[in-house]
Amino acid sequence: MTHLGRRKMLGMSVASVATAALGSCVKPLAVDNVNASPTIPSSDTPVTLSWWSGMRGPQTVCDIFNTTQDRIRVEATSIPGPGDGGNAKLLSAVAAGAGPDIGQVELRDTNEFALAGALVDIGRYGAWAVESQIDPAAWSQVVVADSVYGIPHDTGPAAMFYQEPLFEALGAVPPASWEEWSELAQGVRDHDPTHYLSALNVSGGDLTMYAMQAGAVWFQAEPDGWIVNMTDDVSRGVAEFWDHAIANDLVTTTIPPWSTPWFAAAGEGRIYSHIEGSWADGLLKAVPNGHGKWRVAPMPRWDTGYASGQSGGSCGAVMAHSEHPAEALEFLTWMCTSQPGVDAMIEHLGIGWSPMAGYIGAERLEPSAFFGGQSYNEDVLVPMSNGQNLNWLWPPVCQRFMDILGDGMRSRVAGDTRLVDFLPRAQEQIIEIMRNMGLNVRAPR
């Protein structure tokens, strides 16, 4: 979908979304509606900005920016990651009428923060000029109607990471389709019943990644409210596929990805591959004896949909009580859309995939010794990043949504409920939650 099409889908004004799709009965956290107030002009004197980030070493990047000019100084504070308490810390600060100028917000939580009144619409401060410098898949996650609620600084286009010697021992190549994946998974099990092609994350994140790739659009925001559609043919097909894989023990659900047992199993050759966001390349370096064995391949494809799903990603968002939103946007623009900024984030913050259009980072242009000399960033991850579902939209109650998905996945693993039967129930639950918040929401007619 084009940018104009997405804006039309969401509604052609901030007011229509705020009063209809987002729900006029919802009480925001912010004391005042910052986005209904006049814009704050740039300061005539030097300013100091605060940035709360869950990434490691944020001040190092700030120091590099601070040396580029003498008008803006950015001071960083490390907080827990968004899912480890960082979100709660940011929202609590805003509710108290305080908080930083800039906060790290996961892309999937942006709509929830916007609904709470916690974010400045930086589109009012010129953020639309940044659009052409950001990959469309990342940009689409920070835009609601005519509003921009953050500048993406890392994303997670998914790919298949696999151990080449194990594949070669079976005479196998990376599967191009999910049907081929299923056949190879069965072949691995037949070869050795203690081995698996991969492990499945039962937290719910994997299910959204696969549905997103297949072309599902579970949430739509229109001028008269939200539409929740988790039961279309595409979504049912994804659920049926994983029902089959779990029921036939084609994938392990007892060795959680990135757990200590998972690293041990991968190092021992009992886990052959993993499908994950681009940031997995760094974590795989902790697999025992993994150097030179791993490779990266495109994500297997469904019969419908897109080249890749997405796992993870964050943005820098200007928080509601910032007194210097224009200067905050200037820092975020430098950090996320300049080559020095991107290189600094890769080196010092260990970010995932940079969403800067046309530049993946100097470090990522080089072949990787760990991945056997493969130039996987350019050869694989660039196409995966370019092949995203631009119609996917996260709900404004994402934390509860992900909890529901996790409960459903665990129920499926326990043998209590098939995923294909769980999706309608999840849809009913999320609709009820959104309605209880005062949102206008319905299932598709």
The average pLDDT score comes to 92
- How many H/I helical runs? 17
Strand content: 5-15%
Uncertain stretches: 1-28
State the fourth-level CATH superfamily of the largest domain: Periplasmic binding protein-like II
Q: How would you portray this structure in words?
A:
The protein folds into 2 domains: 3-155 and 311-376, D-Maltodextrin-Binding Protein, domain 2 (3-Layer(aba) Sandwich); 158-309 and 392-442, D-Maltodextrin-Binding Protein, domain 2. It has 17 helices and 12 strands. The protein has helices at 3-10, 14-21, 58-66, 86-95, 110-115, 136-139, 164-169, 178-191, 205-214, 233-247, 260-267, 280-283, 325-337, 339-349, 376-386, 398-413, 419-436; strands at residues 47-53, 72-78, 102-106, 143-144, 147-148, 151-163, 219-222, 225-228, 273-277, 294-297, 310-318, 441-442.
Q: Which key features would you list for this structure?
A:
single chain, 445 residues, alpha/beta, D-Maltodextrin-Binding Protein, domain 2, 2 domains, 7-stranded mixed sheet, 3-stranded mixed sheet, 17 helices, palmitate
Summarize it.
The chain has 445 residues and is of the alpha/beta class.
Tell me the layout of helices and strands.
Elements: H1 3-10, H2 14-21, E1 47-53, H3 58-66, E2 72-78, H4 86-95, E3 102-106, H5 110-115, H6 136-139, E4 143-144, E5 147-148, E6 151-163, H7 164-169, H8 178-191, H9 205-214, E7 219-222, E8 225-228, H10 233-247, H11 260-267, E9 273-277, H12 280-283, E10 294-297, E11 310-318, H13 325-337, H14 339-349, H15 376-386, H16 398-413, H17 419-436, E12 441-442
Parallel strand pairs: 1-2, 1-3, 8-12
Antiparallel strand pairs: 3-11, 4-5, 6-9, 6-10, 6-11, 7-8
Helix pairs in contact: 3-14, 9-10, 13-14, 16-17
